[in-house]
Design goal:
41% helix, alpha+beta, 16% strand, disordered C terminus, globular
């Protein structure tokens, strides 16, 4: 897990690039405080490696062909890579990047982890390849040599990478299937610049940008859209996930013609529930999730597991416990949790369920309670490192990952993306009921009423069916879009996109995973890397994604339960209070209490004093609901000051953790 930068002078005019690279990597030192490296390529095929001030003495000694980067700042090159290393696998100097392979033919700058690298390594060894390191980085290079871009189909992990083939003079760019690892770029008439963070791009003296007003206006109305290529900064773009591109340097063109290399097809059938098949689905799910966790336990540094008290995180904790015992590692599993024990926020607290898991599996449990007073203190820092204005304050997540770092973890396992694939949210019930016959919808709807908070959504689902018949879809959509003053009303959301919310459930789940959930992935990356932590997500294993998408909707909702096949998979493995609970809230923060209560004045003062915000919303200063619409206004006002105003909060260059 690292940070990468790359500069290509695609017009073919050599220029000094190393000084800019060093400034850019310093701006994201938190992504890789353990080492730094650079390589510059001249117009004649020469490669010149360098190390930086943070490179350990062992790296400088081992890579004797490298020089201090300060000695190369005036070297002209047409392409150059920079890298910040967070050492996770192979902690020796052999893991230093940028890394070369094939007698210097290939060079890579890589951020992420390919968890099945040992299996791919064995396959390549049988094909005659040799390896000098124990890293997944070297395996990627050998795989690219053997299979070219098709190597991506074999990778199980998260990545953003740049590979330069000196023999073919080609730059290969790739990003993982789901966009877990970020990759941004900026292009002008002479150069193309890549980076893991926008803050690093802004550190380059030739990057000129301004607020992307249409993007930000859409953000205020509809929320975060991290899956788009556009960003909140003009002329700064995201490289699309599940895509690759190849730039041939001789073409003297910086065009990024990205090609999709992966997709999946969900089951859209209306198959009825079958008890025997439910058991088969549950077992297959359990076994595949266990293997996804097994791969993600590969690490040379301490690990910890996020535990919220719900089924998803508890399933990960259980499987980690089982795998550690199978491996003869009887040490206590470390878990970290966010709780809300204060009287004003107890509504959001899940300590009871966390304590059940702790007792059942003898966990080394650690908890943190984000306090209201910490929000103003940390909020600007969150906005700076998320880089995009988001839908929440993010302070709770930042402090939770800080706890993980404080207890000695450098890698975490998280329960991200289970709800998006197993239909764990209330609005999934609405979609499910729209696609059933009326008798089945009534039967399932009555059963689902027992789920906490489901009554309003289920009543609306039946009203929607009735009004659709009476009014027709277009007129009903127009009515719902006008419903109330709250832009975040579920009724208005459905009205703006009736096709999405009335499609088969698995189609909605795929859309969620490839759009809305990308917001969560970006936030997890930003807040974990702020603390120099690697966050791993077993539910994002692509094999598991494909498998869960193939399970018909009738096994996701059954007998009044959501996520039915997943509950069945861990029945009698986890406590019944965890498996069959109906009141799971998700890992929520008490933001409604914070921003409607003690922080209301602070938030409104920032919003009302923002001239930029007034220029976007026509001077509107009042809103009917502070969460999440008001929080978006707060985040946008602070975002503008962080990146274009006069506040002291700026992208860090010091690299201090937490």
């Amino acid at each position: 897990m690292c940070g990468i930068v790359g500069i290509l002078n695609y017009r073919g005019e050599p220029a000094p690039q190393l000084s800019s690279l060093r400034t850019m990597t310093q701006a994201m030192r938190h992504r890789g405080p353990d080492d730094e490296g650079y390589v510059a390529f001249d117009a004649h095929g020469g490669a010149y490696p360098y190390y930086g001030d943070d490179s350990p003495e062992s790296v400088r000694h081992y890579h004797s062909d490298s020089r201090p980067v300060a000695e190369g700042v005036y070297t002209s090159s047409i392409l150059a890579f920079g890298h910040r290393r967070l050492s996770i696998l192979d902690l020796t100097p052999t893991g230093h990047q940028p890394m070369s392979y094939g007698e210097g033919r290939y060079w890579i700058a890589y951020n992420g982890e390919v968890y099945n690298y040992l299996e791919i390594r064995e396959e390549l060894l049988c094909l005659g390849y040799e390896f000098k390191t124990r890293t997944d980085t070297e395996v990627i290079l050998a795989a690219y040599d053997q299979w070219g871009p098709d190597c991506q189909q074999r990778f199980n992990g998260m990545w953003a990478l740049l590979i330069y083939d000196r023999a073919r003079e080609e730059l290969f760019i790739s990003r993982d299937r789901f966009g877990i690892k970020p990759l941004y770029y900026y292009k002008n008439q002479m150069m193309l610049i890549f980076s893991s963070e926008i803050g690093a791009l802004l550190a380059h003296h030739e990057v000129v940008t301004s607020p992307n007003r249409p993007y930000l206006e859409n953000y205020l109305e509809n929320g975060s859209t991290e899956w788009l290529n556009e960003t909140a900064f003009n002329d700064i773009y995201r490289f699309p996930f599940a895509h690759f591109a190849i730039i041939r340097l001789k073409s003297r063109s910086g065009d990024l013609n990205a090609v999709r290399y992966w997709d999946f097809v969900p089951d859209l059938s209306g198959e009825r529930f079958n008890e025997k098949k439910a058991g088969l689905y549950a077992q297959a799910y359990h076994d595949l999730l266990k293997d996804a966790v097994r791969l993600r336990l590969r690490s040379d540094v301490p690990m910890g597991t996020a535990l919220s008290g719900g089924l998803d995180s508890s399933s990960i904790v259980y499987l980690v416990d089982q795998l550690l015992k199978e491996q003869g590692r009887e040490n206590l599993q470390k878990t970290f949790s966010s709780v809300h024990n204060s009287s004003a926020t107890r509504l959001y607290d899940e300590s009871h369920y966390i304590d059940i898991m702790t007792r059942e599996f003898d966990l080394n449990s650690h908890k943190v309670e984000p306090g209201v007073a910490e929000v103003p203190t940390h909020h600007g820092r969150v906005i700076t490192h998320w880089e995009m204005p988001s839908d929440s304050s993010g302070v709770g997540g930042l402090l939770t990952y800080q706890l993980a770092r404080d207890i000695g973890c450098q890698v975490t396992l998280d329960g991200q993306a289970a709800d998006e694939q197993q239909a764990g949210y209330l609005y999934h019930r609405f979609c499910f009921l729209q696609n059933l016959s009326l008798p089945r919808a009534i039967q399932e709807g009555v059963a689902l009423l027992t789920i906490m908070g489901a009554r309003e959504v289920i009543i609306f689902a039946f009203l929607f069916r009735m009004l659709s018949v009476l009014m027709g879809g277009p007129r009903l959509a127009a009515l719902l879009r006008r419903y109330g003053n709250n832009p975040d009303s579920f009724y208005r959301t459905v009205g703006k996109n009736i096709e999405k919310y009335t499609a088969p459930l698995n189609a909605l789940l795929k859309a969620d995973l490839m759009t809305e959930h990308v917001n969560n992935l970006h936030c997890s990356d930003a807040r974990s890397m702020y603390h120099s932590l690697e966050s791993r997500m077993p539910f994002m294993d692509y094999r598991l994604v494909e498998m869960m998408a193939s399970i018909p909707a009738s096994y996701k909702f059954h007998a009044g339960y959501s996520k039915y096949f997943a509950r069945l998979a861990f029945n009698k493995k986890l406590p019944d209070e965890i498996v069959w609970r109906r009141d799971k809230m998700g890992w929520v923060m008490p933001e409604r209490y914070w921003f409607d209560g003690p922080l209301a004045g602070w938030m409104k003062n920032i919003i009302k004093s923002s001239a930029f915000l007034k220029s976007l919303d026509g001077g509107e200063s009042e809103f009917s609901s502070s969460v999440p619409y008001g929080v978006r206004k707060l985040n946008l006002a602070v975002w503008y000051e962080c990146f274009f105003g006069n506040l002291a909060v700026r992208p860090r260059s010091s690299g201090a953790r937490g």
